Amino acid sequence: MTVSLPEQQLAPVGAPAAPARLSIDDKLAYCRALAGSGMLPRQYRNQPANLLYAVEYAGSLGLHPMVAITGIHVIDGKPSASSALISALVRRAGHKLRVKGDTTAAVAQIIRADDDDWVFEVRFTIEDARRAGLLGKDVWKRYPAAMLKARAISAVARDACEEALLGVHYTPEELDAVVDQEGHPVYIAGEMQRDHVEQPSAGPHRDFVAEAEQAPDAAGVRAVWEEAKAAGAPQDYLALLAAIGRDKPGARVAEPQPAEDVVEAEPVEDAAVSDAQLAADTAAARKEMYDAAQAAGLDAEEADEAFRTAHGCAAAVATVEQLRAQTVDLREAAGGAA
Description:
By secondary structure, the protein is α+β, with helices and mostly antiparallel strands. It has helices at residues 24-35, 48-61, 65-71, 83-92, 126-131, 138-142, 144-165, 208-214, 218-230, 235-246, 271-295, 300-311, 320-337, and strands at 72-75, 78-81, 96-101, 105-112, 115-125, 178-179, 185-188, 191-192.
């Protein structure tokens, strides 16, 4: 049986989406047929239920399913999109978006279609990134101009026309995913995403990731890791290899050692893996903060507003230290209220 989805046009925001002529069963059959494609992002391969989620979400946005499959990433239950897709949603709604910047700062402006007398503007500087603890991330070191523009675009879109985003409020990087220069996630919630990791400059037929996956134990993965490093593999790629090694038999758990006893760092202590660990720590600290806010009688929106008032930035871009400090304050408030 051949199953096809109805064509969906990029209708203006507010216009009804193309009618869903297919039943859920037919859509699921479509997703099962598509799930076997090796060209899909990793989170959708052999996952027809995940594909069905993307198809349904695309319908709610008035997008073609493939736009959602390739451009929207669900992180900890929250949909996120690249700054390019956020820009497209803003412009599709009829608003004007202007962006400029360099490696020191980026400025994004939006002029709403229904209020052209007012300009919404957000400026995000390298100093803002430093205060937010972002400059230690590999992608910020390598592509500061692109990351500054992405931050400015998403921030001004939230301020000026949140209704055009239809629930996609943040980029993956703002939700603590480790991303490549185009904003595609490399690391999400403890899982390395192979698809968008830059390959090393060794021979075109050398696939270090495949070799690591086939290695029988952690020692074998370490040997592959060392060869990849010698071949000039970038930090994100080495982090992916290290993540594979941690799941292999014989993987060692790093323990604190005196400085004089440290001879050589394990791959899991590589800078990129440290970035990934920082992302995981930040996500855990943010969850603790929201739990403390709930205990203090605040909902998520109130918690966000309280955090912004106290620290001058959104919780989504906060450092671990800021989140923990807020958690302490909230717990004290909850104790006082009790």
